[in-house]
């Protein structure tokens, strides 16, 4: 509070309290419930008056006095300890009453919550485990270093903004009243330290800012139900007595800092981003309320915002956790040396800085989770540089996770001890862990019940026999021991999570889920060695059943797909072509509705019923939709992966609508798939598949009016496609082929079309505000009436483009080629045309060019009759042969302009600068 209180001033201020006379009842009240007593109220009054006199805000003073009054009982207890025994005996009933009253008071409940849920020294074993580092005896505070972050602007790094210390930045926000309506929104990829930051910062607030700010840490994965009223959702998540009062958020004596960790782990009915959008909107609206006393920090993966970027609250103050720089890495290694010795730390540092250390490993060592895993394996002598030869980012991560798995299963605990603890050998444990990874991913809740894992294992004969044997030897549930020992820990104890487990880190679950899917993919291409023909051991019917079993739970995430492709890449002699063909056959059958209409064996129905037994509440359509969309994702990834491979380039080609000109081409097929997907929730196709459309072959498809906001369509072939009225806001169309495409009336606001080929494209009436068209080819394109306000069109080719009536206000056309373009009735107010080429461009009629920058532009033989150019800048522009008939050049700047043979009849040159 930064208020100095000299002793003599305080003594004088509170000396009046000694003049109070209390009768026996009032004295008892002061002992049993000091804050409500006359003495307590007097103390509050004098303390508030004093603090406000020292410049403390009234609401803060009120908050502090409330906690001081409650804490006064501890001082009274100390004074009573000096009293004689007979005095204490006479007060024993009153003291007991005081202790009982304090137990049920709000402040006591808050203090208990802070000790158990925020401090690193809770009593509950489950909560103690959350402070431990994976597989180690030491805790998070012993290895944690404060992270750095980069400020964001609409999910883009703010230009010319320095890296900030994350903790210091958050502290500054809490001390700025003008930021009270802003939600602090921290995003980062997996393993970057989001959750650890939340734990450490919450504890720092508890130690240094409570009760000015009382930290409430909520793992969003723990929320079971979401109420229309966010107050009720928060109450249900905290589950403490102090939230039971109706005024728990309006009470002036408390002020909370809500730290909501893991918005990407929010799961709602339908598995769609709509739930995330609605929840973030609730948080944003609550924070923006006039008089809101509390603050919110929200963390999570940026990928969870895919497709909803333009619909999230505008009052999010966003930043992204940066990779660890050399200084932070050295701080971390210093802490590592305190735990395991200077020699170990220096050897590891030499390893990651060695000339022959792969660049991928060096880069991954800047992510906190992977830095720890690398250091731990190096400490235990199982990390070598040769392990990472020729590995890309994803492959390097796979190697680290695989080696970590081996390390946990064999090095940390000898195999003999594993069997003594669990009755399972190492391979059994691998199987159990991959099934657990799939179950947790499918649950959508970051945890799953041991019973669900057991049911999945029982579906295979060998696994079922393994379980029965282990159960006989142990006499109890063998899975509980196995899962407790490796990677997993009990989930937070609630009715819905009883007997449940969760992974120590989400990335492990995703990796193991990818391993499980990979094992099935390998089986799908395996041939029956006993068959004379090329017969698969998994026939088509069984394949379809397994696809629904594995892939109908929700959308595959980019992280899982990345692991999946890296795992397949590590396989020798894998038959990619057969996998592609089998998946494509399934896709074609799915498009025809074969499975949803199946009778009597209806695979979506069967799988829906299986999910229900595991408490996964998806309806029939959702199960069918996700199975088809996930297979589509795999086909798109295989096509992308082999696009530049000479062996498979002409063999593995995925056409979502069939190949143009072939008998099976159906230009509306993808439109129907999108419509079917969106029948559950609008935008579900974009949210699920949108990240994977890079390089897609969509030539000639009909996608009028589709919702593909934020989709990754860079390098996609959309030539001659009909995208009339499509919603493509914030979509990535860089280097896309849009030649002769119909984009009339499409919403491309903030979309990226850099280097895209838009020759002969129809963009009439499209919204391209704030879009990027840098180096795009718009030759002969129809941009009539298009909305390009504040768009970036620098170096673009607009040769002979039709820009009649276009709004280019504030657009950046620096270096663009506008030769022969038609700009009649266009609005270029404040546009930047510096260095642009406008030779023979037509500006007939009332073109509005006020304040436009034509510095250095080539305007040879340009026609500017009737245009309005007040204040325009023509410095060093080439105006040779230009026609300025009936032109308003008042206050324009023409110094060093080249006006040879320029036609200036009837122009207004008032205040013109002709230096």
Q: Provide the CATH topology of the domain at 117-322.
A: Rossmann fold
Q: Which CATH architecture of the domain at 117-322 would you pick?
A: 3-Layer(aba) Sandwich
Within CATH, the superfamily of the domain at 117-322 carries the name: P-loop containing nucleotide triphosphate hydrolases
Question: What is the average of the pLDDT values?
Answer: 81
The rough form would be described as globular
Q: What is the CA-based Rg, rounded?
A: 33 Å
- Tally of extended strands? 11
Helix percent band: 40-55%
Low-confidence region ranges: 1-5, 414-418
> What is the CATH C-level name of the domain at 117-322?
Alpha Beta
Give a short summary of the structure.
It contains 30 helices and eleven strands.
Topology:
Elements: H1 7-14, H2 24-32, H3 38-53, H4 58-80, H5 85-90, H6 92-104, H7 106-118, H8 125-129, E1 148-153, E2 156-157, E3 164-165, H9 166-174, E4 183-187, H10 194-208, E5 214-219, H11 230-238, E6 256-261, H12 273-288, E7 295-300, E8 316-321, H13 326-340, H14 342-353, H15 359-364, H16 368-379, H17 393-412, H18 415-422, H19 426-443, E9 448-449, H20 450-458, H21 461-474, H22 478-485, E10 488-490, E11 500-503, H23 506-524, H24 540-551, H25 558-569, H26 576-591, H27 603-613, H28 620-641, H29 669-678, H30 684-689
Parallel strand pairs: 4-7, 4-8, 5-6, 6-7
Antiparallel strand pairs: 1-2, 1-3, 1-8, 9-11, 10-11
Helix pairs in contact: 3-4, 13-14, 16-17, 17-25, 19-20, 19-23, 23-25, 24-28, 26-28, 27-28
Structure in words:
There is one protein chain. With 915 residues, the chain is mainly alpha-helical. Among the domains are: 7-104, no CATH class; 117-322, P-loop containing nucleotide triphosphate hydrolases (Rossmann fold, 3-Layer(aba) Sandwich), CATH 3.40.50.300; 327-503, no CATH class; 532-654, no CATH class. Strands 1, 2, 3, 4, 5, 6, 7 and 8 form an eight-stranded mixed sheet that branches. Helix 13 packs antiparallel against helix 14 (342-353), helix 16 (368-379) crosses helix 17 (393-412) and helix 26 runs antiparallel to helix 28. The radius of gyration is 33 Å and the shape is globular.
